[in-house]
Amino acid sequence: MSSRGAKDDHDRNLITKGTNEPTFLITWRSEKEIRRTLRNRAALHIFGGGAVAVICLAILLLKLG
Asked: Of 3, 4, 36, 38, which one is least surrounded by beta carbons within 10 A?
């Protein structure tokens, strides 16, 4: 007896995204660690991107006078 969507009897390991969760992660970390890591990464991207934009604007204004 094969699993749903299996190609043959030896193809039983299937990992798919759930219908209720938009993100699927395979990790050894706890949920608390994952949340902290994703929150810190998002903050770094937001504030880092803003800092890069300000620096580039300053360089552009200095070159243009």
From this structure: 4
